[in-house]
Amino acid sequence: MFEIIIHTSKRNEMIDISSKVYKLIKENNLQNGILYLHVMHTTAAITINENADNDVKIDLINALNSLVPNIKFYHYEGNSDAHLKTSLIGNSVNILIENGNPILGTWQGIYFCEFDGPRKRKVVAKFIKE
Fold it and tell me: Which of 48, 52, 60, 92 is a Cys-bridge partner for 38, taking CB atoms 3.0 to 4.6 Å apart?
């Protein structure tokens, strides 16, 4: 199992971690199989989305904030909106790896989604060989 550490700087943000994932693949000579990425937190998520236009990240965060405003929730920590956003986006993704390369679309990137930052976060990765 591998770890990717992420330091976030805002309460809500999407951080492109594609380069960290590519580095993990190359440094560990992962060839053919599936790379499973899992976020170890209940107020953060991971997704694959467009990485060509930075406005997509802003639009997604704005849409999530509209869908899940931080209203008066019963959860005493005051971050129930973050828990709900995480549930909507999800806490894991699978990436096919072929000949040491992730199989992603031309415009796709891997994003860590922070909904209760800033914090130090962890994504664990497990490679399953073909």
Answer: 92
Fold adopted by 2-129: Jelly Rolls (2.60.120)
User: 119 - beta bridge partners?
Assistant: none
Distance (Å, whole) CA 3 – CA 5: 6
What are the two backbone dihedrals, phi and then psi, of residue 42, each rounded to the nearest 5 degrees? -95, -5
pLDDT averaged over every residue in the chain: 95
The C-alpha angle 48, 62, 43, rounded to 5 degrees, equals: 60
Q: Is the pLDDT of residue 115 over 90?
A: yes
Instruction: Provide the CA 64 distance to its chain's centre, in angstroms.
Output: 15
Q: pLDDT tens across 2-38, in order? A: 999 999 999 999 999 999 999 999 999 999 999 999 9
Domain coordinates of the chain in residue numbers?
2-129
Q: Which single residue is written with the structure tokens 């989604």?
A: 113
